[in-house]
Amino acid sequence: MSGWIDEEHRGVRYGLAGVSLVEETSPFQQISVIRSERYGRGLLLDGCWMTAEHQERHYHESLVHPALCGAEAIERILVIGGGDGGTARECLRHNGVSHLDLVEIDGRVIELSREHLPGIGGSAWSDPRFHLTVGDGIAWVAEAADASYDVVLVDGSDPAGPAEGLFNRSFFEHCRRILRPGGVFATQSESPEAFRDVHIAIVKLLREVFHHADPLYGWVPMYPSGWWSWTFAALDSPRYLKARPDRAATIAGGCEIWTPRWQEGGFAAMPAFVERALQQ
């Protein structure tokens, strides 16, 4: 079936003209794969845009590189969610990574992404450093050993359905517990326009759980409002604010969006209403 494929959010529609390739319901959610002329093939979960071939770098580069260019070490990485493979792919571009665990609750998201959007995960799926678990990321974090990861990345959908438990104090406290000294935690933290209250609540909670937490602002044009955020946290210092030159030099040339200058601007771009809310 061809036509407009939309995500509807609070009286606004965000859509692409395209063709539906897959419509199925897994044990966890509705999964849709589409083909559009503008952004290529794309993925929706429960009717919400997750990624598309010509948009994914806006999201994945923004989540990954401030964390991996800021952490003291990047030997062991944990990705919760991220079943399309894009976050793992960007992490594995860093030579310092020796082990990456990806825990995705819905195996069908992985299977359909590998079949229909293979370029997003790219070589990550066959990288010997990559270790995939189809399972509950919340349970994984709760059961992981103290100080077992240098970087923890949460690549989840909106805080509803299977991703709902990825945005609460207990989960964030376990993420803090499993971080090594000098580690960095990061999560997508919604649109400050389309999800204003949720965005502010996430940043406030991370500032309570970690000693340091700051949102970075960028854009993912296919998402509600197009204006998006990722929030980074650490215990010892806001080490994620500026990229280490040695690591940045090895990956910046292959990025479409991320550069150290872009990153610094994204952290500095906090709108007045968010700044006021965080001070209350």
Q: What's the helix count?
A: 10
* Class from secondary-structure proportions: alpha/beta
- The CATH homologous superfamily name of the largest domain equals Vaccinia Virus protein VP39
For this structure, the CATH topology of the largest domain is Rossmann fold
Question: Total domains, how many?
Answer: 2
Helix-strand topology string: EEEEEHEHEHHEHEHEHEEHHH
The oligomeric status of these chains comes to single chain
Q: Level of helix content?
A: 25-40%
Strand content: 25-35%
Q: For this structure, what is the CATH class of the largest domain?
A: Alpha Beta
Named at the architecture level, the CATH assignment of the largest domain is 3-Layer(aba) Sandwich
**Rounded mean pLDDT score:** 95
Question: Could you give the count of β-strands?
Answer: 12
Give the neighbour order of strands across the main sheet: 8-7-6-9-10-12-11
Distance between the termini: 49 Å
Largest sheet: 7 strands, mixed
User: Stretches where pLDDT falls below 50 for ≥5 residues?
Assistant: none
